[in-house]
Amino acid sequence: MKDYLGTKRRELETDLTARRLAHTFSLSRYQLHREVTRRIERYAGGRCLDVGAGRSPFDELLRTRCEKVVRADVEVRSGRVDLLADVQSMPQLDDKSFETILCTQVLEHVPRPWEALGEMARVLRPNGHLILSVPHLSAIHEAPHDYYRYTSSGLEALCRRAGLEVMEVVPAGGLLSFLLHGPSYVIMSTLGSLTWLRWPIWAANYLVLVRLAEYLDRLLGLQAIYPCNLVAVFAKPGPED
Prior knowledge:
By secondary structure, the protein is an alpha/beta fold. Helix content is 42%, strand content 20%.
């Protein structure tokens, strides 16, 4: 059953991505996408490295903000990869070669995140920004390559170890955001996978389990102690800092 749902989810996500609706799959996706978008709009510029790009959900926005975007991943999943690279070791990239690095929902799948952050700090230029997101509450996914969950304190400690300064760390969604991802996953991967039902099911899921639930999550989600995901921005100190 798990394999079936996974296959159907991937088929549906391919369709949603083509229509620029991948972030509407669930409340947690929606809130994460919104918070990352806000940080890209505020901090991104110059040359950008999108680490673990996957389906590149932020590619269009990055290209409106940055001079050049390099999409890196360990494998080609959707034909959107410019560089095959493991974030824990990227010898293909020169020191101080990017003003912006985007790394969303990747570090939980990396066995040595301290090495990954060290590499990102190495290729980041002084005064550049790392825009990062990680899960705090999440079901096991992409096993066996699912290693960590993060608190804000742990994430800050790892980035300071890499020589980066904390700009901001904010929650994206609370407890309800985590709890409702499962129902959306099942509904969208079963009924939503049927061509003739896809868009009525998508609309119902989006209106009830995403937009209406978002209001309830703000009231009852307890984001301070049960953040679903964390979105953070770290800066590399410049010579004048």
